[in-house]
Amino acid sequence: MFSSKHSSCTTILVGKKASYDGSTLIARNEDAGDAVNPKKFVVVEPEDQPRDYHAQLTKFAVKLPDNPLRYTSVPDAVPGKGVWGEAGINAHNVAMSATETITTNSRVMGADPFEPNGLGEEDLLTITLPYIDSAKQGVQRVGELLEKYGTYESNGIIFSDVNEIWYMETAGGHHWVAQRIPDDAYVIAPNQTGIQEIDFDDPDSFMYSKDLRKFARDNHLNLTNHFNFRKIFGSDTQLDRHYNTPRAWYGQRYFDPESVKDKSPMSNDLPFICHANRKITIEDIKFVLSSHYEDTPYDPFAPGADYKTVPYRPIGINRNQQLSILQLRPNMPSAYSAIQWITFASNPFNVLTPFYTNVINTPDCYRDTTETLDSHNAYWANRLISLIAADHYQALMADIEDYQLKEMGYAHERIAQVDKRISEKEAAGSHIVRALGQANARTADHMMKATEDLLTKLVVKASQDVPGSFTREHY
Fold this sequence. Notes:
By secondary structure, the protein is of the alpha+beta class. The protein contains 11 helices and 16 strands. It has 2 domains: 10-328, 4-Layer Sandwich (Penicillin V Acylase, Chain A), CATH 3.60.60; 391-463. The protein is globular. Helix 9 packs parallel to helix 11 (432-463) and helix 10 (393-427) runs antiparallel to helix 11 (432-463). GO terms for molecular function: cysteine-type exopeptidase activity; dipeptidase activity.
């Protein structure tokens, strides 16, 4: 069976009544098995979308519809190893993030084995996002594909539109469930099955494979009188308690400390649906998805800490490859309401850049990522920063935090400026798509200049104190 190389992501979902401005917000780190896995940010036009899709890492193949929508994607930059599109927004302002690799148990795998040549994370965004008009329709399409072709792994798949967020989890090779996230709630999903009690009489809140209840009953999977998807289809292992659960604990602690005051990082009963003690911002999501147990005994960057002995896996880690926060704003015209906030490499050391998605291309410094190092490219510049900063954390983090604060301020200011200018252009009948593309290019130029300046500063500072340093003062 093929095993996903992108296997340790972290997801945050924020309903429209829980967010700071009424947007639906879905976000996910893409973490690879290796520290370096170059990514790029692209737009896929309908004429470039395949009609006969063939996976590159398995024998999965499917004929796709003839009417794809334009969409954004964050695929691998190195060709020949699969698409791994990961996160994007289509021309109808439907967002998708795929996938949050999750866990299952041996009894489920025995009852419904994985399909070695089924669909998986490599494929899901490409074969789904161009063909859906709503978040719920995304669940329906993937559900049909799962039941027909099966999957070779367990995954959580996220869909959103301006009104709803749906989170979908697979179980075994062909079964699945999806839950609509309540508008006033948030979710943190850390590589383990999350959905809990299912109400089979509430089609507005739950969707599932046709035979889900019968499958669980016939195979003696449900050990209780309730239908708790996590307990039936998920896992509760030593790996979960050290690798997965602590991430949910830390995120819930950040959004409402009281909610976990009686819980430990290894608690196996943390809730799936949560409520924060305040409205949630883009900065909040970025902080949690960059976090490494700050202000706890488990921080691998704390003075004197040995990262090799820290008991819990952080969220912000060297294997972060890209982070996309997909924002669908209800208070703006649909022509420019969708924004994909994106950044590359290790999240404790990078900053988000906002891009409008109703465009026909992306800026070259985010689009044309090379297989070999190029410091003028967003992925590689951020990878270099993360490499230097991790080895000189205490000495360099003040500079990085100054950069992050300043450039996030710029990002919000930039959105406000572009919204105003595009609104004026719209009234004058100008071409919004072209104007948004030009605005994205200017935003990217600014962010790359700031990032290259930071990289230069860090190289200069770090070079002053390395093994082999020697000055005349040593005499």
